[in-house]
Task: structure prediction
Amino acid sequence: MGNCFVVKIKAESPFHSTPASGANSRYVSRDGNDRSCSSSRVSAASVPATPRSEGEILQSPNLKSFSFNDLKSATRNFRPDSVLGEGGFGSVFKGWIDEHTFAAAKPGTGIVIAVKRLNQEGFQGHREWLAEINYLGQLYHPNLVKLLGYCFEDEHRLLVYEFMPRGSLENHLFRRGSYFQPLSWNLRMKLALGAARGLAFLHNAETTVIYRDFKTSNILLDSSYNAKLSDFGLAKDGPTGDKSHVSTRVMGTYGYAAPEYLATGHLTVKSDVYSFGVVLLEMLSGRRAVDKNRPSGEHNLVEWARPYLSNKRKIFRVLDARLEGQYSFVGAQKAAALALQCLSSESKFRPSMEQVVSALEELQEAKDAVRNSHVQQNCRVQSSSGGHRSRRASWQVGNGDIAYPRPSASPLYA
Result:
């Protein structure tokens, strides 16, 4: 198995959230129609505008209430070598439970889980713990991490999630070493689309959910490199009625927050769209949103890249050099233009997440069309050469499949 269920490290602005609300019913869009967010299978509850009490939240029929001793046994007494990640509000441990009874199991048996144990100091940690249960206890989507249960016993606050064996997008983009090979262009676009579908699902709930902390460390990958949003501690219900925004204290992570949110504390779904633009730019460039180790003038990724993204001839100065030869000129231009649109200084010029999903799906379809044309070309070459290999078919391998040019034999390029 892989590793890493990564906890976010929050940076609370000195400028200035309370967990939001929820209850059970079928997930529908604001126009009253069933939504699958671009053909993904969705099963979820809506999150109503009326805030629920702590007791109501903890009575979620979709979650199991674990005892502290259960989780202590499942994680082998929270052993240091079981730690998957650490953050400002707690540590995450790897554990094992029986897939039928959910009782603690021996390591290597049953199913693997990730157990977040919150620090016991401070009320903010409890509020975020409750917010995660409130949202993930009701919402289900293929691009949201699954919450299995929680522990609420004495001073102990724990959350139990499905284990994500590939770890975080952050690790795959920025860690260097033999385990983390560079993600291919196609894989980056697949992950961007999956994360976008997760955000679009939240934004189109009966009561809009604003994620508020979209970043690479909160995007986790399963064994098939499907992206799932994790860590809903800062999530908040969107505006209702004729309100245009929600006013909150500014919380999140530096480098990802929208400028109008930082300036005013006014939160909308377009705040998430901006954060998505930052992450998409990180995926295109292979650079962190904020990196003080870069030369002067390049510390802030958005500020450095914006002039290049708006010039078709210069966008390649932004693109990750490790991706050379893996993308088409048109595909790179469209991806860069989408990132730039999401990063518009004025929120009204940013697309909705549904529009982002549509744009990324078009990129995916264009890639598939190119692949199909290669297959057809290969068939024509085979028939015209009487079954003999020709120089023009040098990318064909022995079993008749297409061996696309790859900079590495790593399975990450599959």
Remarks:
- The radius of gyration is 22 Å.
- The chain has two domains: 11-162, 169-364.
